[in-house]
Amino acid sequence: MNSRAIDLRAKKNKRIGIKIIPGHFSTSHSHVNYYIDMTDIKSYYKKAKLAAEELAKAYSSTPVDVIICLEGTRIVGAYLAEELAQTSIAAINHDANLAVVTPETNANNQMIFRDNIQPIIWNKRVLLMVASVTTGKTIGRAMECIQYYNGQLAGICALFSAVEESNGIPIHSLFSLKDIPDYQNFSPHECPYCKEHTKIDAMVNSYGYTKF
Q1: Residue 118, exposed/middle/buried by CB under 10 A (0-12, 13-18, 19+)?
Q2: To bridge 37 with a disulfide, which of 19, 69, 171, 184 should be the other Cys (CB 3.0-4.6 Å)?
Q3: Of 27, 25, 34, nearest to 6 (Cα)?
Q4: CA atoms of 132 and 25, how far apart (whole Å)
Q5: Rounded to whole angstroms, how far apart are CA atoms 119 and 20?
Q6: Which alpha helices (H) appear in the chain, and where do they start and end?
Q7: Are the C-beta atoms of 143 and 166 separated by less than 8 Å?
Q8: What mean pLDDT is predicted for residues 42-71?
Q9: Which residues, in sequence order, are bridge partners of residue 185?
Q10: What is the span of the domain harbouring residue 60?
Q11: CATH of residue 195
Q12: Residue among 103, 161, 156 nearest 132 (CA)
């Protein structure tokens, strides 16, 4: 699969890059025609820092107390917290001690926080960070979680998003459908590749991919 990988650079900062691989892939919610590989951004501190610096620009005037990180974005989230707190003196989050947390998932596939973490969320302004948004179902679950623990959703950011908003809240992302205009996702029952009996290349999730 790596031989089919295409390097893609962010329009606003050419130093930020991901790899996209065309094919037939299965996620937990849908089938997609590209695997979007964000391993480098999520793993290497210099690349994570560059991504955080770019994402922070959208929230310089947004009050934030805690960043909830999903899908392996906690390194980026930590740098995002640092960037928001180190913005100029006039910025609203200057010198704030932002928290960075990740929820657990229980047996019912619900996102939860343990008792010791709940005070970090309760009545706090939350910035939600995800790696990839395709159908928006993961964001929906996260929003239910934030509401359950009485958090106030201040914004949503992503490394890649195929949608522009969720429940009326804009999603600020480094990469979007403008970068991958032929990106598509389908329900498993309506997938044209399956109807043509095209084999699935790999099962993909936030951790990466497993080839069949």
Answers
A1: middle
A2: 19
A3: 34
A4: 14
A5: 39
A6: 39-43, 45-56, 74-86, 118-121, 137-148, 192-195
A7: yes
A8: 95
A9: 32
A10: 2-211
A11: 3.40.50.2020
A12: 161
pTM assigned to the model: 0.92
Tell whether the model's pLDDT for residue 99 goes beyond 90: yes
Each residue of 192-208: pLDDT tens digit? 999 999 999 999 998 99
Give buried/exposed letters for 142-173 (b at 16+ CB in 10 A, else e).
Answer: bbebbeebebebbbbbbbbbbeeebeeeebbb
pLDDT band at 96 (very low <50, low <70, confident <90, very high): confident
Residue with tokens 């699935």: 200
d(CA 68, CA 137): 16
Q: Which helix (H) or strand (E) holds 103?
A: none
Which has the closest alpha carbon to 20: 191, 126, 10, 12?
Answer: 10
What is the average pLDDT score of the chain? 93
The three-class DSSP label of residue 147 is: helix
Provide the number of structural domains found in the chain: 1
